[in-house]
Structures
1.
Amino acid sequence: MYAKISWCRGLAMWLFIVVLILRAVGSFAHVPALGTVTAVAGVVAITLLATYTILRSRVTRRVFETLAATAEHRRSERLVREYQRYLQVVE
């Protein structure tokens, strides 16, 4: 169900790992550009994780709407059948 959007979460997790590695390297090698790259990778990872969460909630909402519509359709069909049986008994 979430196969189309799972890449977003996977990429975010890999970016978090990269951020951790860059932070570890940055603590030993004092390169100012490395801090900037680490910050940008962290922001991108958080953005991807937020995007995944939003997309997942939309997919879940669509699934629940479909299930609710299907349940309503089945319920109305059952009521029609029961009413038809009632009409047959009354006649």
2.
Amino acid sequence: MKEKVYCCRYAHCKFADKKLPANKMILSKGLYYHRECFAKRENINKIIKLYIEIIDPSVVVKQLRGAINNIVFDKNVDSGYLLFALQYNLKMKIKNIKSPYGLHYLINDRRFKEAYDRYKDEKNSVSIKLPYDNISTSSTTFKSKPPNKKGFNKILK
């Protein structure tokens, strides 16, 4: 019997052979991905979630995703490095990020590159836990209460 072959569903898949057997792919929400594509997708989702939760909850997600895609796909920066640089920056408070485009400054800084090299060396020998490493990529429900409306009725009383 012939083994089923699936196509990688990642929009930015760089592999020439997008079709692989199911045992070499990762299944997520009914879609199949290469292991590398899935890891890149998860890292980008963690970066977005971390940015929204810690840095700026009112950011325009389209701009944030555009800045991340520019860094990861156009400049060919590893998504794991960008995630590490953001986490390290939040922990050490090295640069003040106020805009999604400020992420470009993180990837070029010598301090982050050296810390990432040390992290990779230590990760190979001992498991290290970074802050904000346990951010889940599941959806979050938002609840809001409308503010108390004050108008002329309060003034006239």
